Amino acid sequence: MSQPPGPRWHGGQRRIGLTGGIASGKSTVGRWLEQRGLPLLDADRFAREALAPGSAGARAVLQRYGTAVRAPGSTTSSAELDRSALGRIVFDDPSERLWLEQLVHPLVRQRFDDALQQLAAAPAVVLMIPLLFEAGLEGLCSEIWLVDCEPATQLQRLMGRDQLREADARARLGAQWPLERKRPLADRLIDNRGGPEALEPQLVAALAVGLSPGASG
Fold this sequence. Notes:
Blueprint: E1 14-20, H1 26-35, E2 40-42, H2 43-50, H3 56-65, H4 83-92, H5 94-118, E3 124-128, E4 143-148, H6 151-162, H7 166-174, H8 179-182, E5 188-191, H9 196-209
Parallel strand pairs: 1-3, 1-4, 2-3, 4-5
């Protein structure tokens, strides 16, 4: 069951919310936009920094899970995480994933707020947020682009990219909303079912014309 799109940000700055499913091609699109001079704010990078060695976030995770998620050679003071071990825990248990999201999401939101304030003079900014809809962050963006592909393609790309077993890859896919749920909520769909030669003309057109009322493809 779909839901109406959330409210958008209104202001003089163009804020492109870039989202999609895991392994759908967001990073490829993000790099393309960044190469054309648009500042790129990456939620995944902010989330990694929120759990950086020695951070309050990393200490909270170690306090909850102990040595099961401590990186080899790490001490309590350095608070370095074994991210693969942490991933196995949270992708296997929705309640643990929720706990981690409640820890990390406010920290990521604060980083976006700070970065957007620093970039207030930029005419356009890209906010690359995999869990944009799941986290209810539509209000940060003036428009939302969804990088779209088939679930089977996502699965194969994810297994190849991260060297995951199929069951582990499916668990990661299952932790996000499926693309079919996200499509009606986006302002523009970027079809990544083909190769780069099919992707680039869509991006050129989307960047050139901006957001037109009712645009979805």
